[in-house]
Design goal:
With 237 residues, this protein is mainly alpha-helical. It is built from ten helices and no strands.
Length: 237
């Protein structure tokens, strides 16, 4: 499914389930639910989550800075020739990477920075930084589309936010799980427990085809009905 469909379906169904069970719905919980709905696709640089966090405008600005840095190293580092030319060339090449590759580089830089400065903040920076680096290097629908990814994300939410709101980790975990189940409906499916080769694949739809659009539309409609039944209809009564 497409990113927007994941956002609507996983978020809507998760909030509906929590609403049916009488759990309180807060803005932080909604935010975590929405992020969790998109998080499995963090290993895809052009996904909705990554492209929103690192938009094209930001990458264009970064490209400009890298070009200026390359020129500065070349002209003001002549005392270190030929190393200034080597560094300038590498920086210049980095500036003209495709946006998809540049997003991966930025994710790796952020991950390394979190690991380097983790002792100054919280130990969880080690985990988050490591995950960013790993996700930037893995193929799409790799580790993040497994039971291990689900458990790691649920664990991070549980141990960091349980004292604030015990429902957040449940919402995040359920939203993440619904994303995986949605991807299992595609012709590609997912491998939930590698290294075992077993693939969860129901083959109900193919993303980008008319059949896939119809199936996505049906699930979105059912999600809207669920949200309306749990929240809107209750307000009207």
């Amino acid at each position: 499914m497409m990113g927007k469909s994941h956002l609507v379906i996983s978020t809507g169904l998760t909030l509906s389930v929590l609403g049916l069970t009488g759990q309180s719905i807060t803005l932080p919980l909604i935010a975590v639910t929405a992020i969790s709905a998109l998080l499995p696709d963090i290993d895809e640089p052009n996904s909705l989550l990554v492209s929103s966090a690192l938009p094209k405008s930001f990458l264009q600005y970064l490209q400009g800075l890298l070009v200026l840095l390359s020129l500065a190293v070349f002209f003001f580092g002549q005392a270190f020739t030929p190393w200034n030319m080597v560094i300038a060339a590498l920086t210049g090449l980095l500036a003209f990477l495709p946006f998809r590759s540049m997003r991966k580089v930025v994710m790796i830089v952020i991950g390394v920075s979190l690991i380097a400065f983790a002792p100054l903040f919280v130990p969880w920076c080690y985990i988050i930084g490591s995950l960013l680096i790993v996700c930037a290097l893995l193929p799409h629908r790799g580790l993040t589309h497994t039971v291990y990814g689900l458990l790691v994300w649920s664990g991070i939410l549980y141990f960091t936010l349980k004292s604030y709101d015990q429902n957040i980790w449940l919402a995040g975990g359920l939203s993440y799980l619904l994303h995986l189940l949605a991807d299992s409906l595609t012709n590609h499916g997912i491998r939930p427990i590698p290294p075992f080769k077993w693939r969860l694949r129901i083959d109900l739809m193919s993303t980008g085809t008319w059949k896939g659009s119809v199936v996505e539309g049906i699930f979105i409609a059912l999600t809207i009905v669920a949200v309306w039944s749990v929240f809107i209809q209750h307000l009207e009564l």
